[in-house]
Specification:
The complex is a heterodimer of chains A (290) and B (180). With 290 residues, chain A is of the alpha+beta class. Chain A contains three helices and twelve strands. Chain B has 180 residues and is mostly helical. Classes of the chains: A alpha+beta (290), B mainly alpha (180).
Chain lengths: 290, 180
């Protein structure tokens, strides 16, 4: 321990706070100038915290499941009636789907059209729900031998959830579609009108910049568009709703409040990503993925 | 509440040093734990990712009653951790937390003697100022006008959980004081 005189020590103590405030500004500039550095630091921290969250999440999940169980028991009767109803409807749809599939196959045969390749996917666990007022992201726990890459698309059971923005050794960060930085090319399923789905941090992202004169109509289904090759086309996103002040919003199919597992689809697309999400050359550690 | 009276010098062996270190690190460690815990997905409906900011409450409380236990360097480190966790612009939280720390330091002689209600109201004002400044900085950093509502939700939640956090911190502070 270095012995310092009392006045000198007091002077240093008084200087610490201004120096650290200056350091904060320095960090801000550094983070703005070198986004890769900040990203590496985040990925390293995520790698460190993923096991911690994995342990912490277990009792929380148990409590959450118990609460859900009680809720289900209370609504058992109504739920049964609803499911019977839905089953009836789905059976009719199944017949339609089977007929269409047969017709599709027959037409393909005639045209010699190649069949769409079945996309490969991996299922991963969501361990943390990070972000604050101005960020919506989730932390994913992935195995050490993973083949997860930046730019991959994530879906839950019902629809699009977001896209991978950072990949570490055993963790990955998923930017949700509701995040304010999220911009996703979409289209109206029926009319093929292209638009951009822009996150606002609110539960319903907005539709912007649609092509053609007519705006999408409330109630229409929105799916992803393959604009710029960054996204595979046709993944379910949500339904158009009219928000406050006539703003067109999308009610998502995915339940972003209760993410437990997501499917990561690898469509082998490497289109134009936003500048901050440009994929760096793969490190040799993750050999032969994709 | 706090007793700034110097403790009598004791013989310091290895275990005493370790014990003392653990005591000194307790507020910082507790804050880190709270910040990390905010990431646990609790899956409340209508929460939409907005969480309270326990770091604000912690820095406010400890700076007010025991500034020596949460020095500026610890405040800075907690800020960097918050930034990395929430993918906020790097340097934002350290700056906000250090400013809060500095603001409380100037007022603590008067404020530490006041009732809980007044301390809470002052926390509301300071948190509003800090989060407002945070909104301005974010807007400047991304060069785009950000919506105000998320910051307001965040402020409301943070102020609402302050009594609970304060209760927890008081328990920790008392156990630290009793053991010292």
């Amino acid at each position: 321990m270095i012995r310092l005189s009392v006045p000198l020590r007091q002077a240093i103590a008084r200087l610490v706070l201004p120096a650290l405030i200056a350091a904060s500004f320095g960090l801000m500039l550094l983070g703005k100038a070198d986004t890769v550095l900040a990203e590496r630091a985040r990925a390293a921290l995520s790698d460190l915290l993923v096991p911690v969250y994995g342990v912490l999440a277990r009792p929380v999940a148990a409590v959450r499941d118990a609460a859900a169980e009680i809720r289900h028991l209370i609504h058992l009767h109504g739920e049964n009636a609803r499911l019977r109803d839905e089953n009836e409807r789905l059976r009719r749809w199944r017949d339609v789907a089977l007929a269409l599939e047969a017709e599709n196959l027959a037409l393909r045969e005639v045209l010699h059209a190649p069949a769409e390749p079945t996309p490969q996917f991996t299922t991963v666990r969501v361990v943390a729900d990070l972000g604050g007022a101005y960020a919506r992201s989730a932390l994913l726990a992935i195995g050490p031998q993973h083949s997860v890459r930046k730019g991959q698309v994530a879906l839950d059971g019902s629809g699009l959830v977001g896209r991978i923005t950072e990949v570490g050794g055993r963790s990955a960060r998923l930017l949700l579609v509701t995040d304010i930085n999220s911009r996703i090319p979409v289209q109206v399923e029926r009319t093929r009108t292209r638009a951009i789905l822009a996150g606002t941090n609110a539960p319903r992202p907005r539709l912007q910049h649609w092509t053609g004169g007519e705006a999408p109509v409330a109630g229409e289904r929105i799916v992803t568009a393959s604009e710029a090759g960054a996204f595979p086309a046709g993944l379910p996103v949500g339904i158009v709703r009219e928000g406050r002040g006539g703003v067109l919003e999308v009610e998502l199919f995915a339940d972003l409040d209760r993410l437990e597992f997501v499917r990561l689809h690898d469509f082998g697309l490497s289109g134009i990503l936003p500048p901050e999400q440009v994929t760096r050359p793969e490190r040799p550690r993750r050999r032969g993925d994709g | 509440m706090a007793s700034p009276v110097a403790r009598p010098p004791r013989p310091r062996g290895f275990w005493q040093t370790l014990d003392q270190f653990a005591r000194d690190a307790a507020p910082g460690a507790l804050t880190v734990l709270l910040v990390v815990a905010m990431g646990i997905p609790i899956g409340l409906p209508a929460q939409h990712g907005v969480m309270p900011v326990p770091a604000l409450a912690a820095v406010y409380f400890w700076t007010l009653y025991r500034p020596s236990l949460l020095p500026p360097l610890a405040v800075f480190a907690i800020g960097v951790l918050s930034d990395l966790l929430s993918a906020a612009p790097l340097g934002l939280h350290p700056l906000l937390l250090l400013l809060l720390h500095a603001a409380v330091l100037t007022q603590r002689r008067v404020l530490a003697r006041q009732s809980f209600l007044l301390v809470w109201v002052v926390f509301l004002l300071m948190a509003a100022g800090v989060l407002g400044l945070g909104w301005i900085l974010r807007t400047l950093l991304v060069f785009r006008l950000l919506p105000v509502e998320p910051a307001l939700y965040e402020l409301a939640l943070t102020v609402a959980v302050y009594p609970a956090l304060s209760w927890l911190f008081v328990r920790v502070e008392r156990s630290l004081a009793a053991a010292a």
